[in-house]
């Protein structure tokens, strides 16, 4: 259920916490964050606060943009990369005990974990705000925030949109969170394009049905590319397949975005990807102005600066 006001937000665990008004208010703050200059008064607004980043799974963008965001606003950073190996989790400490300990040293905790539901468990154990930086194949709500912000910045609207979600829709927590978040806006519809073993989960389809959001599954990438405003590609997540590597290999390379797909796309459409990418968007696409994925990654800094400000009630 959404919190009624952005100022009342206590943590960030799932996309469903946000409604349209909260998103638009957050994006105004993010716009202001993009203007914060080093040495300015605004660059000291989180001075005296500490943020702990506990990452049990690899990350480049999420961890570094959160740490960059805290640094740009004058706050301190306590960081555990590879927390499963280098924190006391390796000695068998429970997540709850780790969180209760770390909140003694920090004012906000950013958690990436390999288990769906871990961020909710952490929030239940903590008195400080907890931010879900990705919980296994569950959710990645801050990615959905920056994705939604990117769509708004690139296209100037969040209503009347056709969005194609491509790739690993079963394990891709970014697309699961984005689909939920976009239900806040009128006349948004989805095409799901995924290999059979990684199709969009029943839970998200049911949520879209309950909210009256149209979706359909398709195998026709070129056809969908010609229709949509946003073509959102994702990586097939090898790490979720365990020893089923034959299934992983069978999924790879079926739906790649290349110049032929770009030729089919409208001139005013954009390509997004949460990154990292492997070969599912070919590198010659990068020079096309419709390739928004590196601008999307940069937006993560501004949105996460805004979220830290909101959650720390500054
Ligand atoms: N998009 C994203 O979550 O990237 P990282 O895994 O590098 O944080």
Compact overview of the structure:
The chain is of the alpha/beta class and about 325 residues long. The protein is built from 12 helices and 9 strands. The mean pLDDT is about 95.
List the helices and strands and how they pair.
Layout (H helix, E strand, L loop, with lengths): L19 H14 L16 E6 L5 H12 L3 E5 L2 H4 L8 H8 L5 E6 L4 H8 L4 E6 L5 H15 L5 E6 L6 H10 L5 E6 L8 H9 L4 E3 L3 H7 L2 E4 L11 H7 L7 H6 L5 E3 L20 H19 L3
Parallel strand pairs: 1-2, 1-3, 3-4, 5-6, 5-8, 6-7, 8-9
Helix pairs in contact: 1-12, 2-12, 4-5, 6-7, 6-12
Shape: globular
Unreliable segments (pLDDT under 50, ≥5 consecutive)? none
Task: Tell me the β content.
Answer: 5-15%
- Give the cofactors and ligands: phosphoric acid mono(formamide)ester
Order of helices and strands: HEHEHHEHEHEHEHEHEHHEH
Largest sheet: 5 strands, parallel
Radius of gyration: 19 Å
**Tally the helices: what do you get?**
12
Mean pLDDT: 96
Counted beta strands:
9
The order of strands across the largest sheet is 7-6-5-8-9
Gap between N and C termini: 24 Å
Protein structure class: alpha/beta
Q: What level of helicity do the residues show?
A: 25-40%
What does this structure look like?
With 314 residues, the protein is an alpha/beta fold. 38% of the residues lie in helices and 14% in strands. It has 12 helices and 9 strands. The protein has a 5-stranded parallel β-sheet, with helices on both faces. Strands 2-1-3-4 form a 4-stranded parallel β-sheet, sandwiched between helices. Helix 2 crosses helix 12 and helix 6 crosses helix 7. The chain starts with 19 loop residues before the first helix and ends with a helix. It binds phosphoric acid mono(formamide)ester.
